[in-house]
Amino acid sequence: MGIEQNDFIPALKSDVRLKPMNGYALAHGYHPSLIRMIDPSHAFFLALCNGTFRPAEIAYLYGETFGLDADDADYQASRLLDQHRMFLDFGGEPGEAVRFSPQDFLFPGDKGKIDGAAYGKWPVPAGINVTLTFKCNFNCSYCYQDLLQTGDNRWDLGKCRELVEEAADWGVVFLGLTGGEPTIFKGWLELIEAGLKRGMIPTMTSNGTVIGSDPEIAQRLAAAGMEEITISFDAPSAELHDEITRSKGQFPKVLNAVRYLVDAGLRVVIKSVLTPRTQHSVEPMIDMLVTMGVHEIGISFMEGGAIESGANAADNVSMDELRIVRDRVQAKRELYAGTCDIHPPKDAEKVWKDGDWYPCGGINMGMSIFPTGDVSVCDKMHGVKDFTYGNVFDRGLEAIWNGEAFADLRERTVQPDLIDPDCAKCSKLYQCRTSCFVDAYNATGKYLAKDPHCGGPFFD
Ligand SMILES: C[S@@+](CC[C@H](N)C(=O)[O-])C[C@H]1O[C@@H](n2cnc3c(N)ncnc32)[C@H](O)[C@@H]1O
Ligand code: SF4
Ligand code: SF4
């Protein structure tokens, strides 16, 4: 079909942003999982998808700008619409506001950098993930963090602010704050404000106790431009909440946190971990949360965690129980479609096939930084020496990312004699790098074993 027959109006999805970088551009949504390094000319094209032009008009503008003949311009436009469809809506009416200026992307792409990303090497990480504190005021039975870790706590707000500025100057998009409970770190709110002021996207999951103690916190987050926050919520009653979190009397604060955030206009995402004790109360919990106006609810299957974490010893639901919960959550998903986006737990037995391969990507595009200043691949890996590749009290983020220790670590993740033979022959190895080191360790005792969720090797 020729592009002139495409009678629709492509528009960038409302939560998608484009960002010019040095030799490439970024297209991304609100989550680090949806970020792509693209050629600046593709970003130029996407900026033209502003809900005003039809495909033939976009093809014309694109072709005139890059000196293509009409057929080639049509062909390229069809290809780009298909290649970047995850960022686009196709049903728009003309007249949406122009959000990104195509001229901002008229600079040459650096093919080496862009191809490097396809091999899992990002010039600048998409996000940094800062563990603000190892401490938590809860002690959830299922928690994947090693809550006993203390390390040498060297953080203070000043150092964290420096990191945020450094990351923003470097072009990092996402600022993840985690813990322990991030909101018990003095100054967490200032860090979010600082990140937002510098155009970063802060992401944070909290147990809600601090946010639910003072309605002004939610107001301040909204005023600073925070769009979304995730609250952990596992039970619809105070009794069960106390039991799961092994704390006392905090449930009203968690409810308040949800109320205050919804009232302040933030998009509230609920993350809920399924356990044998909570599996029967998932339906009333969803009803309650939808009534409170949350925007999204993800029910997750309990994963294994850091060495010494409670999750590794906690009882999990059986596969049969998981199936039953999944069906029930699916029914709620259908019931509340259009009101709240509800995600049933994943099938824990399903392994990746070619079409649904979903590696972690942390080693390619993220840095996890601990209160000790150590930088590692993942926030579950504090103290794992082989995966620690720098310390922010010794060197800057950029020097650590481009340093020898990280290059060595990356090299180890593709060394045929160190990794699983399946991974060694897999065509996705350089992007995957055997994927989740922690899950592999929990399953086999080896960090560089094949990810237990993988049905590979793949050959494409
Ligand atoms: C480790 S917590 C840190 C942030 C904060 N303390 C909280 O609970 O929201 C981050 C998220 O991981 C989830 N989580 C903890 N242990 C888990 C496990 N074993 N499997 C899946 N998710 C888990 C928590 O419920 C929470 O939503
Ligand atoms: S899941 Fe969060 S709130 Fe619960 S113990 Fe772990 S860090 Fe604390
Ligand atoms: S076989 Fe190994 S490298 Fe290939 S996709 Fe699976 S985990 Fe990744």
From TrEMBL:
Q: Which cofactor does it need?
A: [4Fe-4S] cluster
**Protein's UniProt keywords contain Iron-sulfur:** yes
* Keywords for this protein: 4Fe-4S, Iron, Iron-sulfur, Metal-binding, Oxidoreductase, S-adenosyl-L-methionine
Q: Which residues form the Radical SAM core domain?
A: 122-339
Entry-linked Gene3D superfamilies: Aldolase class I (3.20.20.70)
Which Pfam families does its entry note?
Radical_SAM, SPASM
Annotated GO MF terms: 4 iron, 4 sulfur cluster binding; metal ion binding; oxidoreductase activity
Q: Does the keyword Manganese apply?
A: no
Q: Which domain of life is it from?
A: Bacteria
Q: Which InterPro entries match?
A: 4Fe4S-binding_SPASM_dom, Aldolase_TIM, Elp3/MiaA/NifB-like_rSAM, MoaA_NifB_PqqE_Fe-S-bd_CS, Radical_SAM_PqqE_MftC-like, rSAM, rSAM_sf
Output the GO biological process annotations, alphabetical, semicolon-separated.
Answer: molybdopterin cofactor biosynthetic process
- What is this protein's record name? Radical SAM protein with 4Fe4S-binding SPASM domain
Q: Which organism is it from?
A: Parasphingopyxis lamellibrachiae
